[in-house]
Amino acid sequence: MIDLKGLSAFPITPSDRNGKVDAGALRAVVAPLLEAGVDSVGLLGSTGTYPYLTREERRRAVETTVEQVAGRMPVLVGIGALRTDDAVKLANDARVGGAAVGLLAPVSYTPLTDEEVFQHFTTVVRESGLPVCIYDNPGTTHFHFSADLVARLGKVEGIVGLKSPAPEVNEIASHLSGLRRAVPRGFSLGYSADWNCVEALLAGGDTWYSVLGGICPKICVAIAQAVAKGDAPRARELNERLRPVWDLFKTHSGLRVAYAIAEKICAAKPPLPILPLPPAIVRTISETIASLQQD
Asked: Of 126, 166, 180, 197, which residue is most buried, by most CB within 10 angstroms?
């Protein structure tokens, strides 16, 4: 079974206004992740704007990143699509391209039932042969994975983990313990929504799926390492330094803030119709990141 633990860093996917992935800019974004020593790279996640890219461009991103990573850490790849057959094709592309795990969200226009999602996931795993991590992202898919559905999917060979949005701090322990009871031993339970993820890790979560880790990896690696050493005070101290960043994420979205930070690395803009943040907000973000780096 794939070992999904620690910090999984989710970078943006630089592309031009026609949706063509800029391989050179993508390598520039991924390079600091390798230098910082993240535990895995989460390519083509929501911050990686996977729904906005064609199959060909998603394949280009996978090939570029897997070649750069060169086996030093697993590469997780978003394979979500509206149609099951398209998700199978994307999963096959990711597997052939060298991805370790597919990150599958139940992308939908018509709201999906639990049975439809179950069949969607089992078909993708069976027909592609790529291990899959469940991507629970109700804010964008409008579908929430119940513990019962996670339990069903956890019994399917090839489904290896769950990426959940971290609940509020006072709900994390019960949320995690409920999921632990539902899934088999070795099934990875990880969290996104960066501002609550430190507490999720301290409560026993396996993986932090991080937007900030994809653009400012060093402090996120330090937090994950502090948790791994059992140093909760240090992890919380570092997380407290990030509170201004979390406030920016909550106000403007992690995706928009990540693109603003990435301006110092590459000239990529988010795909339309998403607009870049106004210059005044970008300056605030830059000043916040600069003060963080000084600390």
From this structure: 197
167: burial class by Cβ within 10 Å (0-12, 13-18, 19+)?
A: middle
In whole angstroms, what is the distance from residue 204 CA to residue 95 CA?
30
What are the domain boundaries of the chain?
A: 6-294
pLDDT band at 217 (very low <50, low <70, confident <90, very high): very high
* Integer angstrom CA distances of residue 253 from 48, 135, 156: 13, 18, 34
| Class of domain 6-294 as given by CATH | alpha beta
When comparing pLDDT for 292 and 286, which is higher? 286
Mean predicted lDDT score pLDDT of the chain: 96
DSSP three-state, residue 78: strand
Residue 9 has pLDDT above 80, yes or no: yes
Burial tier of 216 (Cβ tally within 10 Å: 0-12, 13-18, 19+): buried
CA 85 vs CA 78, 128, 143: distances in Å: 15, 10, 20
Query: Which one, of 250, 66, 223, 77, lies nearest residue 165 by Cα?
Result: 250
- Residue 217 near residue 8, CB atoms below 8 Å: no
3-state secondary structure 93-129: HHHHHCCCEEEECCCCCCCCCHHHHHHHHHHHHHHHC
Q: Residue 152: what residue type?
A: R
Indicate the Cα dihedral angle 167, 168, 173, 176, nearest 10°: 0
Burial 122-158 (b: 16+ CB within 10 A, else e): bebbeebebbbbbbbbeeebebebeeebbebbbeeeb
pTM across the whole model: 0.96
What b/e sequence results for 90-106 when a residue is b if at least 16 CB atoms lie within 10 Å of its CB, and e otherwise? Answer: bbbbbbebbbbbbbbbb
